[in-house]
Structure formats: C-alpha cells, structure tokens
Amino acid sequence: MKRSLLFAAASLALLGASAAQTGPAASTPAVLASIKTGAPTRMVYELDARAMVFILPATGRASFTVDMKPDTYTIQSRVRTTGLADVFVNYDMNLSAAGKTSATGLKTVQYISKNNDGKKNRRVQVDMTETGFKMDANPKFGNLGDPAATAEQVILANDPLTALITFALEPRAKGADPCGGPIKVFDGRQLTYLHLKRGKAGMVKQKTPAWNGDTIECHVTMDKIAGYKKGESNNDTLTGISGPLRMYLAPLENGAHVPVKIVADTDKVGKVTLTARALRFEPLVTASTGTSTGGGGR
Q: The whole model's pTM is what?
C-alpha cells in the first residue's frame, strides 16, 4: 500500500471550484446528478506533498484529469515523488481508470498502472465485471498475497483512483457521518478498506490554495483485507504511518465533501502534508456539445 497512499490521498481532493474559496460555494445541483442529466464535466487537479528528510525537502506531485459523461468516465493521472523514501517510494507513475457513471457514484471497469521507477517498471491492468475480474501484471507478481483477493470481494471495490474520487462526489444522506466511507480499494493485488471517523467535533479552520474556511476533521485507518503478506491482513494501520491519517474535508453546498488538506505523521520522515495546489471544474468537450473546455491536465 506504500505506493498507493499518495494516489489515494490525492484522489480524495478532486472536487472543488476554479479558485480558492472562503466558505461553502453557492448552491448548485449535485455533481453526479448534473452529469447524468446531460452536463459532461471535466475536473483537473494537482496535489502537492511535502516532508523533510533530515534537513532536505522531499516532495511529491499528483496530477489528475477526470472526464465524466452521463454513462461513462475516464481518469488520467501522473504521480511523481522525490525523496519520500519508505513512505512514498520514489517513482514516476502513469495511471488510468475507466468505468460507469451513475447519479450515486462511479464504478470501475478498467484500471491500468504503469510504474516507471527504473526497477521493476511494472504494468498492471485490471478488468472488472459484475461477477468477477481479470488481472494481468508484467512482470508478474511473485505472489498474490495470503490470502489472495477473491472475485466476490473485488466486485464490491473500486480501483484506487475511482474509489477515492467517487468518495468525494457521492451524495451523503441527511444526518449521515460527513466523513463517509468505508472506501473499498483494489489495485490488482491488494484489497484494502479505508475507514473514516470524525476527529474533532467542531469545525476546524484550514487555509490552502483551494479553500480558506471551515473544514471537517476525519481520521483514516485501514483494514488490509487481502493481497498482503501472511499475517498482515486485518492489520488496521497505514503502512509507515504513526497514528491515524488526518484528512480535512471542505463541505460544499452541492453536498460534496472535499479533502483540502491531508496530514500524516510517519515513522521515517516525520510529518507529511498534502494540499490541493490547482483545481478546475469545467464543461467537457463532447461531439454532441461542441463546446470548448479550455485547458487540460499537465
């Protein structure tokens, strides 16, 4: 899960406005509901990670382009890290996901990850159906964990990108815990459940490039369900993290809950902080609309 943590955290912060906000946005229709009724949407997002290794800065950046149409969606992502050894392993990865769009969430059909770290340079492709999945890895994994994930477990999960994006977009029921979850993630080998619970009872002020105002503090722990080494499953700790990962959600008037800051105290490099750096939420060009989105991912 080491290499998936930055993807997961980055994916959580995907929804927002085109500029920094000082409080809840004006009321708008729920994002997924609008898309289903004929408003294709693109989200472009960048997340920065920062830490210190001795006196040297360690950094990471994740960029995402999420295109959502009434029935389908695609996600393109690139994640690069420098110096975040053991927690965020140095790598340069290209990720993509595609699947089905509904008014209540997104569901994976295909997920591809390409690791260009100069070592194994592994490519993993996962294809999911309603009854099972197929996974191809090149080079192959030495093993699929003990126990390995089953078809019955995988079909209830999403890939890392989709799982965390749909978490941000899914409408919360009135009176439900605003932290949401659990989030079920399958990356081709490891099946993980992320559990969220309220941290501080009151609202917490946060100032980031994407938000300046009240946030909800959530604590994240995880269950290693399958695909891990023998003895690791059902260990509810995030690899390399001391205590819970703290995530701060900005509540929007459209019902979305946007993570604008994520903080982890790590065993190896101390505190790691992730913040939204750039964010756009815009109409998507389609053959039927013939309109311009202006810009794209970097």
A: 0.82
